Amino acid sequence: MKEKGLLIVLSGPSGVGKGTVRQAIFSRPDAKFEYSISMTTRKPREGEIDGVDYFFRSREEFEQLIKEGKLLEYAEYVGNYYGTPLDYVNETLATGKDVFLEIEVQGAKQVREKVPDGLFIFLMPPNLNELESRIVGRGTESVELIRNRMEAAKREIELMSLYDYIVENDQVDLAVERINAIVLAEHCRSERAASKYIKMLEGK
Ligand SMILES: Nc1nc2c(ncn2[C@@H]2O[C@H](COP(=O)(O)OP(=O)(O)O)[C@@H](O)[C@H]2O)c(=O)[nH]1
Ligand SMILES: Nc1ncnc2c1ncn2[C@@H]1O[C@H](COP(=O)(O)OP(=O)(O)O)[C@@H](O)[C@H]1O
User: Fold this and answer.
1) Please, what's the b/e burial string for 98-122 (b: 16 or more CB within 10 A of its CB; e: otherwise)?
2) Does this complex have an ipTM over 0.95?
3) What is the 13 CA–ligand 2 centroid distance (Å)?
4) pLDDT of 78 strictly over 90
5) Residue 102 domain-assigned?
6) Which of 88, 127, 140, 163 has the greatest CB tally within 10 Å of its CB?
7) CA separation (Å) from 35 to 100, 129, 149, 193?
8) Within-domain flag for 20
9) Residue 14 among known ligand-binding residues
10) Residue 15 maps to a domain
11) Confidence class of residue 203 from pLDDT cuts 50, 70 and 90?
């Protein structure tokens, strides 16, 4: 039987750079993980494609999926639902591939409870001033909302003890290297996983 893949969860406070780091990981031709495309009820932004960036669904459709137990986790974030399709994760892990989730902290907490042997990585800002500049720099929020975001970020940072590793996102490329190194180290911890990794290096 094939050894199951590793479930890798990248989370962290809003505005820390989760989406940016995830895109950098998957824009590399040698990306070793499978990205789980999330479902959301938020409207597509310009250039976003259904089935590539997200599976865009109506609230009714999303609530039906919740009822049917089709989501590994879900959360409501700034007025929209976001969730991880369960079947894709299970089926991909069963083929021995590592699955990568980039999700906000409430969802990550649910995954920690359901998949305790996953690899949980918390992305940290270098400091709170820098986090605030990134939220402001993104230009999507009003002054009032930025204050709320900063308060929420402090509460989100308190949840970091639920994670296996903390990665500082001072520079995107460095954060990507750290994440890749952590996954490699995790594979080396178990002998069976190490033999799987050797097979991967051999291209089998
Ligand atoms: N719980 C959960 N959060 C998700 C999922 N997919 C994306 N997110 C998070 O939802 C938040 C909002 O994402 P998005 O609307 O793309 O806006 P962004 O703030 O520009 O990244 C980000 O923190 C994502 O990490 C998911 O499947 N589940
Ligand atoms: N290492 C970094 N240094 C400087 N700016 C960054 C870095 N990582 C992300 N950013 C910027 O911070 C803002 C928030 O990033 P984003 O990926 O949307 O965060 P999140 O997905 O965690 O909410 C974006 O404008 C992005 O370009």
Assistant:
1) bbbbbbbbbbbbbbbeebeebbbbb
2) yes
3) 11
4) no
5) yes
6) 163
7) 5, 31, 27, 20
8) yes
9) yes
10) yes
11) confident
